[in-house]
Amino acid sequence: RTAVRCARRCPPPEARSLAMARPPPPRAASGAPTRPATVLGTMEMGRRMDAPASAAAVRAFLERGHSELDTAFMYSDGQSESILGGLGLGLGGGDCRVKIATKANPWDGKSLKPDSLRSQLETSLKRLQCPRVDLFYLHAPDHGTPVEETLRACHQLHQEDKFVELGLSNYAAWEVAEICTLCKSNGWILPTVYQGMYNATTRQVETELFPCLRHFGLRFYAYNPLAGGLLTGKYKYEDKDRQQPVGRFFGNSWAETYRSRVPTGTQSSWACPAWSSWSRTWQRLRKGPWGQLSWTPLTKPGTWLPTSVPITSA
């Protein structure tokens, strides 16, 4: 998956609708509008992508001027990190232009307790063959561990120079506010990045999370910007009764999680996005009386994209 990194600037308080006036897009010191950075997500490396295919993808990504890679302790049972570590990029070194991010999680018998947190990060460093990572995420909340314990352990690991920046992923806005407040009051390292799902069909983060991140000064990295492939136009409503394709939404242990994250026609009803009312409406539009349309939500000029909202690269 490709994650698009951006920090959302929200409307002023008097603006009660996204349709109302927004602040102008942020600009660099030169005065030119800034553009979002692109981060290569490596979740499929070691699963649907073998080592040679993974190496080719990273090489193509870097040749196009990008420089940030994203992985996690859990991706492909650790193979994603091991593949990246074997590419000879010198990750974590002072002269390495490639930035690497990884994550610790509370699933499958693990937790965000100090011992498990340290074990996961140190294992990741060994797999990645690097002394430190540029960005270390808490992959999701661990409601069985007091958050103070986790944050204190993160601060200790940062003091030991095992990571540069702290990030959060999949936390609620109120949890982000609590974490930032605790870190500030205790003098612990503050999170500076939040990674969450954001695309044209999944926009719940706009309501509370974006204002929260703006208030506390966190950058936002959007994952699933193409809704797991939905916005490419490759899914069709009529395929719902045919063989289910292996990929993001079918044929793996996390498929149900992804299916439940993308809304259908209303925020309160949920279904697989490939067969949702949104998809069905789109298919009807493409086959209207004006004939078959050649564009998709991804390619049609003027349709919603992550870059159509005010963003800034960090």
TrEMBL record:
Organism expressing this protein natively: Daubentonia madagascariensis
Molecular function, one GO term: oxidoreductase activity
Keyword Transport attributed: no
Residue ranges, compositional bias (Low complexity): 28-37
Family in the record: Belongs to the aldo/keto reductase family. Aldo/keto reductase 2 subfamily.
Name recorded for this polypeptide: Aflatoxin B1 aldehyde reductase member 2 isoform 1
Gene3D superfamilies the record matches: NADP-dependent oxidoreductase domain
Record keywords: Oxidoreductase
Pfam families (UniProt xref): Aldo_ket_red
Domain NADP-dependent oxidoreductase: 39-241
